[in-house]
């Protein structure tokens, strides 16, 4: 039951992400070259974007979950880790109140994380480890772009 609820929550977060991304793309009138550049998170004229406290707290919680993960040699542990992170990821989307370009940049930051979370429970231990380290690096980069 818990797994079903988690999966439903994650799917809803994915739908919200997709919806927000589609709205952003519809409003975007840049060329394809500029568009591909804008799909990666960018600084605000060299400065960090202001994020709502709930988003920052959610990212910090995800980093804490990652830092406390000790079972790196156990394939089943990655599935549990993935489920725990997906819950927090969904919470970030539910509590997001950001608007404008800061909101767009947050989505640019979160979309690659969403993809990593979807693959973290791979049946291949080597792949899980690779995704874990990439996810850990990406989460740590939050403070590079947001305050």
Task: Describe this structure as you would to a colleague.
The protein has 147 residues and is mostly helical. It has a domain at 48-147. It is 73% helix and 0% strand. It has seven helices and no strands. It has helices at 2-27, 32-38, 53-67, 75-94, 100-119, 125-140, 142-145. Helix 1 packs across helix 4, helix 3 runs antiparallel to helix 6 (125-140) and helix 5 packs antiparallel against helix 6. The longest helix is centred in the N-terminal third of the chain and has 26 residues, at 2-27. It is elongated. Residues 21-37 have low confidence and may be disordered.
Overview features:
single chain, 147 residues, mainly alpha, 73% helix
Per-chain topology:
Elements: H1 2-27, H2 32-38, H3 53-67, H4 75-94, H5 100-119, H6 125-140, H7 142-145
Summarize the structure.
Helices cover 73% and strands 0% of the residues. With 147 residues, the protein is mostly helical. The N and C termini lie far apart (37 Å).
Number of DSSP strand runs: 0
Structural class: mainly alpha
The total of helices stands at 7
Oligomer category: single chain
Q: Portion of residues in helices?
A: over 70%
Instruction: Describe the largest sheet.
Output: none
Write down the overall mean pLDDT: 84
Poorly predicted runs of 5 or more residues: 21-37
């Amino acid at each position: 039951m818990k797994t079903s609820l988690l999966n439903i929550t994650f799917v809803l977060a994915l739908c919200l992400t997709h919806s927000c991304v589609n709205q952003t793309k519809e409003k975007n009138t840049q060329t394809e070259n500029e568009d591909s550049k804008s799909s990666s998170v960018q600084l605000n004229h060299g400065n960090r974007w202001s994020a709502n406290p709930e988003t920052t707290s959610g990212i910090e919680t995800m980093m804490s979950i990652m830092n406390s993960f000790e079972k790196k040699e156990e394939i089943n542990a990655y599935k549990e880790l993935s489920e725990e992170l997906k819950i927090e990821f969904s919470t970030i989307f539910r509590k997001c109140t950001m608007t404008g370009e800061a909101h767009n940049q947050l989505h640019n930051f979160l979309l690659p994380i969403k993809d990593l979370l979807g693959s973290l429970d791979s049946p291949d231990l080597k792949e899980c480890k690779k995704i874990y380290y990439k996810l850990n690096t990406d989460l740590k980069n939050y403070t590079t772009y947001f305050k």
